[in-house]
Structure formats: C-alpha cells, structure tokens
Amino acid sequence: MLKKSMPWIWLLFRAFAISSAEQAGKIISILVNVVGGLIARKRMEEMDDAFWDQVMTLNTKSIFAMTQAFASVDDRTVAQL
C-alpha cells in the first residue's frame, strides 16, 4: 500500500524494522503499534464524517504499514505478528 502511494514513508518504516530486528537478534517477537497521528484538534461536536474518516484512515493505515514493514524483514516474523 505505502510502497506505491508513499514510498519515502515505506522506506522509513522498513529501515526502522531492519534496525530493530538487528538490535533484537533478527526475530521480533512483539510489535506494539501505537497510533494517534494528529490531523487537527477538534472537539467531538466539531467533527464531521469526512474528518473522522481521515483520522481513522491515518491510524489504521499506519498500523498496517508498520506491521507489513516488520513482516517483510524476516519470514519468521510473520508468524509472530
């Protein structure tokens, strides 16, 4: 997904995954995805559907992309995630 649409972010995620795997001894046993990208600060009553969709897209895509980056480092990692 990010490989095509945002290749520079994919490269950052992949570099982070490779560095983490090297420090951990090649196998990542646990990956904790913490999301919460800030698009804008709005109170609930100020949010519309489009804004909510934008927030959810950012958060769910970041989880998927980071997990995909770690899974691509080593086939053994996939079973652990």
Helix content, binned percent: 55-70%
What global shape is seen?
Answer: elongated
Helix-strand category: mainly alpha
Major beta sheet, specifics? none
Distance between the termini: 18 Å
What value does the Rg take, in angstroms?
A: 15 Å
Mean pLDDT: 79
The total tally of domains equals 1
Question: What's the quick description here?
Answer:
This protein is 63% helix and 0% strand. The chain is mainly α and 81 residues long.
Task: Fill in the keyword field for this structure.
mainly alpha, single chain, about 0% strand, about 80 residues
Descriptive notes:
- By secondary structure, the protein is mainly α.
- It is built from four helices and no strands.
- It has helices at residues 2-5, 7-24, 49-71, 75-80.
- Helix 2 (7-24) crosses helix 3 (49-71).
- The protein is elongated, with a radius of gyration of 15 Å.
- The two termini are 18 Å apart.
